[in-house]
Amino acid sequence: MKIVILDGHGANPGDLSWDGFHAYGELEVYPRTTATELLERACDAEVLLTNKVLLLQPELERLSDLRYIGVLATGYNVVDLGVCRERNIAVTNIPGYSSHSVCQLTFGLILGLTHQLLHHNQLVTDRSWSRSAEPCLIDRPLIELAGLTLGLVGFGQIAQEVARVAQAFGMRVQVFTAHPENYRGGWPQVSFVALQRLVADSDIISLHCPLNDRTQGLVDGHFIAQMKAGALLINTGRGLLVDETRVAEALHEGRLAGYAADVLGVEPPPEDHPLLDAPRTLLTPHIAWGTRAARQRLINIALENLDAFIAGEQKNRII
Q1: What sign has the CA pseudo-torsion 170, 174, 177, 181?
Q2: Strand, helix or coil at 92?
Q3: Per-residue confidence (pLDDT) for residue 288, from 0 to 100
Q4: What DSSP element (H or E) covers 257?
Q5: Which one of 167, 237, 254, 265 has the fewest beta carbons within 10 angstroms of its own beta carbon?
Q6: How remote is the C-alpha of 283 from its chain's centroid?
Q7: Which residues of the chain are under the pLDDT cut of 70?
Q8: How far apart are CA 271 and CA 276, in angstroms?
Q9: Residue 184 has what pLDDT?
Q10: The sheet that has 149-153: what strands, in order across it?
Q11: How far apart are CA 33 and CA 89, in angstroms?
């Protein structure tokens, strides 16, 4: 069979290997594929692997040989699932591969805000500390995590890792999820609460829910107005979970104590994006998932998914 990887650069910019896929057929790997290049590259493929390249109805209807789509990510909104069902095209995704890495950056962002790391680093590099009369230069309030309440919106694998680490820091953890009954028995030290209570009671809110019609723009002006005074907001989920204009306004007006995110609604962002000049922000360019260990795990699971499909078995099947 012919296997085409449409945009392999994200998962493997050159430090890993796609060689395992050669065992299943002819392999073509492209670092990136534009919409105008898609049909030419995918025209006779039986297997397509995609991360961000959209596979929607107009493209899928012209790919007559296609039998399998492997999404090289957890989210699979890049694929038109309705057409795939009609065409009997299998679709898989890769859940859980980056849970440890995203959890790690989530706390990097939390610690960055609570200890004002960028600011205090600047005090060192601009020689303010060198000129200080005091051996310890602290000119902004620092926040201890122990005893604070962390609110998690969503409770998938990443949020569960975050909950474990938060408890190690001595934090109280409360969760809003659509199906708390699935978790209560295994998480006796976690409080499952309504969203309104979570927003009002949390010192730090971290977003880990999927992006869909119900969650897009979840953090709007009303959400922010209900947050606890001095609360921080963390987003390692999806940029469009928040109304970024309202978040920027709340930061400028002092109604939001801090915002840290690894994701934005448009990536890369335009130079006039409202959050780029907002105070008390810490933004990273969608790097949480990108450790070498996580990317190797992604490739390994992608191979396992394809192997299961060829064997007539189901592994991480969406369809």
Answers
A1: positive
A2: strand
A3: 97
A4: none
A5: 254
A6: 13
A7: none
A8: 8
A9: 86
A10: 190-192, 172-176, 149-153, 204-207, 232-235, 258-261, 281-283
A11: 21
Alpha helices by DSSP H, 66-185: 81-87, 99-114, 117-125, 157-168
What is the pLDDT at residue 170? Answer: 98
pLDDT at 230: 97
Number of neighbours of residue 141 by Cβ within 10 angstroms? 9
Structural domains in the chain, sorted by start: 2-97+292-310 (3.40.50.720), 99-283 (3.40.50.720)
267-272's contacts with Cβ under 8 Å and 24+ in sequence apart are 267/239
> Using omega within 30 degrees of 0 as the cis cutoff, is the peptide bond preceding 270 cis?
no
Buried b (16+ CB within 10 A) or exposed e, 197-235: ebbebbbbbbbbbebeeebebbbeeebbeebbeebbbbb
Residue at token pair 């899928």: 60
Strand partners, 172: 149
* pLDDT for res 273: 98
Burial 240-249 (b: 16+ CB within 10 A, else e): bbbbbebbbb
Residue carrying the six token digits 């610690």: 111
Strand partners of residue 28 = 4
The C-alpha atoms of residue 239 and residue 216 are separated, in whole angstroms, by: 9
- pTM score, two decimals? 0.92
Give residue 101's pLDDT: 98
Hey, what are 52's tokens? Answer: 């961000």
Q: So which residues are the catalytic ones?
A: 238, 267, 286
- How far apart are the C-alpha atoms of 77 and 276, rounded to whole Å? 27
- Find, among 236, 177, 180, 178, the residue nearest to 204 by Cα: 236
Q: Where are the beta strands (DSSP E) in the chain?
A: 2-5, 26-29, 47-50, 68-71, 90-92, 149-153, 172-176, 190-192, 204-207, 232-235, 258-261, 281-283
